[in-house]
Amino acid sequence: MREVAIIGVGMTKFGELWGQGIRDVFAEAALKAIEEAGVAQIDSLYVGCMSSGLYAYQEHLGSVMADYIGQKGIPAARVESACASGSTSIRAAFMEVASGMSDIVLAGGVEKNVGCRRRNIRSCCSIRPGVRSIQWSYIPGIICNDGSCLHGKI
User: Fold this and answer.
1) What's the mean pLDDT in 9-27?
2) d(Cα 142, Cα 148) in Å, to the nearest integer?
3) CA dist 103 to 7, 40, 129, Å?
4) Which of 35, 36, 34, 29 is nearest to 10 (CA)?
């Protein structure tokens, strides 16, 4: 395996960002990273996101984001691994560069929860009302093996 380096980083401010959609949030950080890296073209793209179909009504984030940031025609994929989705996208990018398959790979994570309702969160996280022994349920920022840690809010 060859050595790998992070050559550009971009980040948006954290917050509700009501005026931006999921594409805008990702693009802001991605374009900053590309600019900092000093490259015009990337070889592939990984987007980490938990439940974009449920929360932002878009499942195909890889191709959507590649097109939105002007990188059409590259391999692009959405990576889902609960609260580790962004980190998992970085791991995938690392492995792709380390293996020699690609030279420049963009990886990042994005979440945009648009008007989440409790029933949507239950559906996404396999939480049903009245069920108290849920193994490894996921709520953004909270991983637990017993529904009681949710304090009855879901």
Assistant:
1) 89
2) 12
3) 11, 13, 48
4) 29
